[in-house]
Specification:
about 300 residues; alpha/beta; Spore Coat Polysaccharide Biosynthesis Protein SpsA, Chain A; 2 domains; 9-stranded mixed β-sheet; 9 strands; about 20% strand
């Protein structure tokens, strides 16, 4: 058993999940060399009777009754038997050689504890033009060169949760961290909430162990993005929730916190003129406002966990 594939799902869109499973069924790595764990995270209608994984002899349906992506992830880490664990979302379609390449990257980068690759979007409806540089919020990643580091700041080498590979010792470190750290246990999505940074926190556990994090051009998957995530409301909620989670994550890791700042009337006027001059869409302006609200909210929530003074 070389690799454990963990799919965590809550009330999935069945056509998306079918495509995810079909991409796994078509992997070039023989099924005898990997296992599949499908974790039903408190779905309204139990998934086991609706999801056929009998084609993989090393497969198991698991149930996590406590709602929250993190809870399902933790169950997957406890139950996985292989030395490498791969997390696949229920809207991910893996390239046919993803598992094989994930193992090769792990062999060639023994100094890296968490790695991933490109996440290419497939939109259900056309991407609105106003999204622009905020597209990353839809978990879109284009890896053009192989990169790795053991740096905590910046996200150039830290992989996202979709298609994330980790070593067993990293999973064990994360299990211990979540058991002892109240903030880690609160990161990531819960039901309709849009919190995040659980995957970032997990990747940082590789750095805790003296390993690195990386992204490889060998790994590619398609992210199926429904119309509901291409709305103004979704991206505003994401911006605020993600910023709040970012502050909690940084506080729990002892990283400097960017202190929220009140914008003066002059600054607001300058931003207004910038918007007019550069024709910045109103939607993008509101997303930025939501981000600043999230930073302020996260700063207040994180005060009790601050390990060092915030940046001035």
């Amino acid at each position: 058993m070389k690799i454990s594939v963990v799919i965590c799902t809550h009330n999935p869109r069945e056509e998306f999940l079918r495509r995810t499973l079909a991409s796994l069924r078509g992997q070039t790595l023989p099924t005898i060399q990997w296992e599949l764990l499908v974790i039903d995270n408190a779905s309204t209608v139990p998934l086991a009777n609706r999801c056929d994984i009998s084609w993989q002899s090393n497969s198991h349906h698991l149930h996590e009754p406590k709602l929250g992506k993190l809870n399902a992830w933790l169950l997957g880490m406890r139950e996985a038997r292989a030395e490498i664990i791969l997390f696949v979302d229920d809207d991910n379609v893996l390239a046919p050689d993803y598992l094989e390449q994930a193992l090769l990257v792990g062999e060639q980068w023994p100094f890296v504890g968490a790695w991933g690759g490109s996440v290419i979007p497939e939109y259900e409806i056309p991407l609105p033009a106003w999204v622009g540089e905020e597209e990353w919020r839809l978990t879109v990643v284009d890896v053009k060169v192989d990169v790795w580091s053991n740096l905590r700041e910046g996200y150039a080498t830290i992989p996202v949760g979709a298609g994330l590979c980790i070593r067993r010792q990293v999973a064990q470190k994360y299990l211990e961290r979540c058991a002892s750290n109240p903030v880690s246990a609160k990161l990531d999505r819960n039901g309709k909430g849009l919190g995040g940074y659980g995957d970032i926190d997990l990747a940082h556990c590789a750095i805790d162990l003296g390993l690195g994090t990386g992204k490889s051009t060998r790994l590619r998957l398609t992210h199926l993005i429904p119309a509901g995530r291409l709305t103004f409301d979704y991206l505003v909620r994401h911006a605020e929730s993600d910023a709040c989670s970012m502050m909690l994550f940084r506080a729990s890791r002892g990283l400097p916190l960017p202190k929220p700042k009140e914008h003066s009337c002059l600054e607001k006027l300058r931003w207004f003129l910038h918007r007019i001059k550069n024709r910045v869409p109103r939607e993008r302006y509101e997303i930025q406002k939501a981000y600043h609200r999230g930073v302020a909210k996260g700063f207040e929530l994180a005060k009790e966990f601050i390990a060092q003074p915030p940046q001035k």
